[in-house]
Amino acid sequence: MKEQLEQIKLSAIGSIEKADTLSQLEELRVQYLGKKGELTLVLRNMKDLSAEERPIVGQLANIVREDIEKRLVLKKGLLESSEQNQKLQEETIDITMPGKGLSYGHMHPLEQTLEEIQRIFLGMGYEIIDGREVETAYYNFDALNLGEDHPARDEQDTFYITNDIVLRTATSPVQVHTMETQELPIRMIAPGRVYRSDEVDATHSPVFHQIEGLVIDKNITFGDLKGVLAEFAKALFGDKVEVKFRPHYFPFTEPSAEADVSCVMCGGSGCNVCKGTGWIEVLGCGMVHPKVLEMAGIDPNVYSGFAFGMGLERLTMLKYNINDLRLFYENDIRFLSQF
Questions:
Q1: Cα atoms found within 13 Å of the Cα of residue 23, Cβ hemisphere only
Q2: For the chain, how are helix, strand and coil distributed in percent, rounded to 5?
Q3: How many C-beta atoms lie closer than 10 Å to residue 5's C-beta?
Q4: How far apart are CA 52 and CA 54, in angstroms?
Q5: Which of 27, 107, 120, 239 lies at 20 to 30 Å from 228 by C-alpha?
Q6: What SS3 class is residue 182?
Q7: Chain-centroid distance, C-alpha 160
């Protein structure tokens, strides 16, 4: 796989150097770095590697990705400069028009954060799995140890299509489908859109995005969970960030916890963002409940695992110091052009 990554890098470099137009450059970006691109497909096959090889190959893949991205940016700048010089000779410049930056395209802030999170977990040997947004009540609730009397099944909290069909309230059903159909061990994340019957305000929306993770293998402990989430937090927010875990309750994990990171705005000294505590809650996590394993056909006496879930909007708000979730969906160019 190392040789394959090197071949992808050399092929991408050669193709980028030969590109003559911005459209060709965009096609190359999709070909090598897109969701179904060559580099992504290699990373999704990392599950076939040994536990010792995955981190090494993941690190090399990140280096290759960064090299390709830098070369795309540089070539795009050269092509834009050449194109602008040609236009200068052909027409008068309208100085009232806004300028164009040299960044490689503009991405929605949620998309930026999602791609960064996916790169982090791909580098740790995880695969990315998509799932359906319309689910049965069994996969959305029962298979996750949320019985019929659980308050999460209330019609005030959930969008029901029929008595047994709902819009998923989390990406957790993707984890259940994966446990039922995929060979062990499992190491995956499931990003996607989810739905809850919430009023729209600065911190709530009936439609938002989650990223949930799942690891199932022999001898998995809570220490493994803490190590993974600590590395993730440092990769996303910086090496100086600290992580702490507080006991919590989730029906589908036992023991369960909520994870906090030291405030990325004040460094833990206390500010209005962290309400003076120095800490900000970012995700929920825990060891997969034995009953959830059993319902998915996995023997809890042989295998164990951990799961975690986080809100993409919340992480993006923290990363970019955004105080109103509604800004993500209003399509205000003054806001979106900052990213």
A1: 0
A2: 45, 20, 35
A3: 19
A4: 6
A5: 107
A6: coil
A7: 27
* Residue bearing tokens 């395209």: 105
C-alpha angle with apex 87: 84 to 91, nearest 5 degrees?
140
Q: Pick the closest to residue 313 from 157, 152, 108 (CA basis).
A: 108
Q: What is the CATH number of domain 109-133+168-336?
A: 3.30.930.10
Among 133, 184, 211, 188, which Cα is nearest to 293's? 184
* Distance of alpha carbon 275 from alpha carbon 265, whole angstroms: 11
Q: How far apart are CA 190 and CA 168, in angstroms?
A: 13
Interatomic CA distance for residues 55 and 83, integer angstroms: 42
d(CA 202, CA 122) in angstroms, rounded, equals 31
Strand partners, 281: 260
The span from the CA of 242 to the CA of 80, in Å, is 42
Burial class (CB in 10 A: 0-12, 13-18, 19+), 264: buried
Residue by residue, DSSP assigns 66-112 as: HHHHHHHHHHHHHHHHHHHHHHHHHS---TTSPP--SSSS---HHHH
DSSP bridge pairs for 194: 208
Q: How do residues 110-162 score in pLDDT, each as one tens digit?
A: 999 999 999 999 999 999 999 999 999 999 999 999 988 888 888 778 999 99
**What's the chain's Rg over C-alpha atoms?**
22
Rounded to an integer, what is the distance from CA 203 to the centroid of its chain? 19
Residue-wise pLDDT for 294-334, tens only, equals 999 999 999 999 999 999 999 999 888 888 889 998 888 88
Please state, in angstroms and rounded to a whole number, the distance separating the CA atoms of residues 72 and 148: 52
- Contact present, 57 and 46 (Cβ < 8 Å): yes
Q: Assess whether pLDDT exceeds 80 at residue 50.
A: no
Q: What angle do CA 164, 213, 176 make, to 5 degrees?
A: 35
What average pLDDT does the chain have?
86
Tokens of 54: 């995955």
Contact 335, 253 (CB under 8 A): no
